[in-house]
Amino acid sequence: MGISMAFPPEDFDLFSFRRAVLGLAVFISFVILRIIGSAIYNLYSHPLSHVPGPFFSRASNILNTLLARNGGIAPWLQAAHEKYGDVVRVAPNEVSFISGEPAWQDIYGFHRGLYATPINGTDNIIISNEADHSRGLVGLLVGMLVSRLHEQVEGKYPVVDITRRYNHTTFDTITDLTFGEPLYCLRDKDNHPWVSMIFESLKAARLMMAARRFSAFVYIDKIMGFFIDEEILKRRRAEFSNLVSHKKNGVLALTKGRNGVERNNSAHSWKRNNCDDPFGLYVSCLDQLARYTKVVEEVRGRFGGLVDITIEKVNKLVCLLATLQETLRYCPPGPTGFARIVPQGGDIVSGIYVPEGASVYMSQHTANHSKRNWTDPGTSTPERSLGDPKPFSFRLRNCLSKNLAYAEMRLIAAKVLFSFDLELGEESREWLKDQKAFLVWEKLVLMVKLHPVQR
């Protein structure tokens, strides 16, 4: 009797529903087994298994990635450090520190081999500008800011979004220093397209960084991309490219006559500085500043008019500087820290061995709100011993534009407080609590009512 050797069998159907379901079940089983196996390895055999942290964070990147993408990472980090201590494993290959000076030295100090990884593979720097030129420019633009605020009050619109006005000033300042021409936000009383592009790019960068931790989000983002109008994206890219080309040509023509100010046509090199908005945070604490009327008295008692207020003189206002410094502690510009990768061979960070390839950073917001580092950290108290909150990173990779940021915030605070009494709008009482953290805080509308000072 002959045996049929037909292949494939006559009843074989490669695309049958049953086989499709079976194949899907096998694939899902493989994925689940891989996730379980990876979790077991991360929990018990990973080189960082000795570092404490939340169970799901040690087991998988999913939780940390979700929090990073929805902006809720800052309060979660704070809660994790309160429970587990100064050193917390916040992802299988990522460690957060809040142990003050030792961690700052070990992660960001000159002698360390730790390095940063750029988001898109291209290195970038934050602008450094020539000091004397920037002082004069900052003074002129802050004066224009005060004039615009007076115009709004005189036009019977005394309630303003102070964050928007501050952004106009900082973007005009840094683009003039960078490209030789401002964006004219103050002149036009409106945002330039670059302003929204910069903030959107910061958020997108954070989402890209988060997606690296858990590759499934890369595919999710690609699927979501199918629902975005590609023509709109192409048009926005073309508009941005044209703007950059225009500014770059202006820079080349002005390079020799602008006091040697460094020219850098990378928007990334200056967007970080423009998002440091401590004055907005300072205003948001107006309900607490009733105790600190000395700040207003100090400013108005020291100067006879706006023209007398200069950066050099403002730097001698002890109460004002203490209040702004405390604001930087209370809500630092970079809430989650700047990650560094441990080099080959591993290293000791704040007394803890960290293997090569792991990501480490100081969680600034959490460190600044930890009872291990501060007395009553949840209250804004300028009288406290300020120490050094280091809002602009540290040493080798310190923020090169921090002097410009300090000059802006101090001069704006002095001139605005000299000119106006400020009243926080009821709709902005929870402004600090409602912000989400990406690379920087996603700032909301901050409504303040202006009352011109009568002299």
TrEMBL record:
Protein name, UniProt field: Cytochrome P450
Chain intervals for the UniProt region annotation (Disordered): 369-388
Family per similarity comment: Belongs to the cytochrome P450 family.
Organism of derivation: Lentithecium fluviatile CBS 122367
InterPro entries the UniProt entry points to: Cyt_P450, Cyt_P450_sf, Cytochrome_P450_monoxygenase
Molecular function as annotated in GO: heme binding; iron ion binding; monooxygenase activity; oxidoreductase activity, acting on paired donors, with incorporation or reduction of molecular oxygen
Domain of life the protein comes from: Eukaryota
Keywords noted in UniProt: Heme, Iron, Membrane, Metal-binding, Monooxygenase, Oxidoreductase, Transmembrane, Transmembrane helix
Names of required cofactors: heme
Pfam (any one): p450
Regions that span the bilayer: 21-44
